[in-house]
Amino acid sequence: MLVGEVLEKDPKLVIGLMSGTSTDGIDAVLVQIHGNGTSTKVHQVAFTTIPFPDSVRSRILAVASGTFGGSEELCRMNFLLGELSAEACIAVCALAGITPNSIDLVGSHGQTVFHAPVPSEYLGRTFASTLQIGEASVIAERLGCLVVSDFRVRDTAARGQGAPLVPYTEYLLYQDPTRTVALQNLGGIGNITILPQGGGLEDIIAFDTGPGNMVMDALTSIITNNASRFDFNGEFAARGTVRMELLSWMLDDPYLSEPIPKTTGRERYGAAYVEALVETAQRMRISLIDTLATANRFTAETIRIGLDRHCAIRPSRMVVGGGGSLNPVLMANIQACLPDCRVLSNEDLGLDSSAKEAVAFAILANEAIHGIPNNAPKATGAAHPVVMGKISQ
Asked: Tens digits of per-residue pLDDT, 282-323?
């Protein structure tokens, strides 16, 4: 199906795919999208997550850390993730009871394996860079529809940080003329979007707050000897005690004082960070359970610090999405850090926290095929609005 044919359809059946820094698996959401731009209306039809097999997840983490076999493995992983993404699309279609050939469009974020948003020197040149893999042509071939992928690179080329990407879609879906609203996503990394009361796209404030679930997930894996990938319902954190001496060490973090626009990822809060955290806790004679409880509180504190530093008008409501919103200990810590702000989950609004980011990429794909700029330059630092996403057809 060609772009022109899809543009004529309203509504469209669109699949959004997201695989984040937690590397748990591929989120696939099927939505019906009416219109585009500020007239966009979205109805969620079905959602599923296809977990990565342990062998695949371990190699993704190795590739993302740079300790991999070289260009051959990167090439093979790119196509493997393309196949797994196509399978996730087929799975969500089966869940919805429709055939894959009914899909008009797929928006695929891909898997970030390197993200260097701060320009650095390489072979005599200084520039930023980012790389997401998960071959879109494989998805297009398996489903027979348009696929929009590789969203971050266009913003990065325009001198932006290539992140956060969701503020544009959050503006379309959540902007409120009566109050200032904060949207906090808690995937592997935490990112926040502030929508000032009655403001426009140019008024958005957005940035990565710091680690979301990433550090807690790694600690849970250590505690359970890799039996659990995440702290289900915050059960381990609930058993621990926040240790202020370790929290102070964590809060002495240069990222938290960096100006916006800013973004971060596994390169800062990955294996090396967790190793340093565990070693510090051991020197302080702090147990792993207490370390996890402290890391949980740290994620909440990074949100408070981000608002204190970068938001002159405090939000009266914060809507939390992503896997972290399902952790009651973390949600309680966030509320404790923000006593004057009502902290809600997407579920409190009748929405699906787990599907939020995947829905965003379905919307970004729809905007891309219409040729509508879909970044938020104030949030990313890009020199100007751009149309993010490469089209495979």
From this structure: 999 999 999 999 999 999 999 999 999 999 889 999 999 988
pLDDT in tens, 56-74: 999 998 888 876 778 999 9
Per-domain residue ranges of the chain: 3-165+355-392, 175-349
Show Cβ contacts of residue 21 under 8 Å, excluding neighbours closer than 6 positions: 112, 187, 188, 189, 214, 265, 266
Which two structure tokens, joined as six digits, stand for 332? Answer: 């309680």
- The answer, as to whether pTM is greater than 0.90, is no
Domain 3-165+355-392 class?
Answer: alpha beta
Specify the pLDDT at position 1. 67
Topology match between the domains 3-165+355-392 and 175-349: yes
| Rounded average pLDDT over 244-267 | 94
Class of domain 175-349: alpha beta
Q: Which residue has the tokens 């929009």?
A: 148
Nearest to 200 by CA among 224, 232, 240, 168: 168
CA R_g for the chain: 20
